[in-house]
Design goal:
- It is a single chain.
- The protein is α+β, with helices and mostly antiparallel strands and 115 residues long.
- The protein has 4 helices and 3 strands; from the N terminus they run αβααββα.
- α1 crosses α2, α1 packs across α3 and α1 packs across α4.
- The chain starts with a helix and ends with a helix.
Length: 115
Amino acid sequence: EHKESKTDSRELLQGTLDMLVLKSLQLGAMHGWGITERIESGSGNILGLHHGSLSPALYRLEKQGFIGSEWKASENNRRARFYTLTPAGRRRLAVEREQWERLSGPVNLVLGMEG
């Protein structure tokens, strides 16, 4: 039973990370490091991302057709893989965002209950 709840929380975090990656790419094409910075600064530096969690998310989203990628020169003239949001990714972000807004309100109500 304990093992199952761990998997559930990991899936929730994975889904949330995917949504945040899609949102950051809605703002424009970006390489992995830039996506990390966008999410961190956008959260008021409360959310911290490790490359180890971002890479699998990018791979997964690309495989699902929600993002595309190409190699380009970065700001400091190094080759970097730049990611873009696809039309399917825009639709997915809209669905994810609506689900998040529908669920986060009730969850906050439960968390705010006083005994």
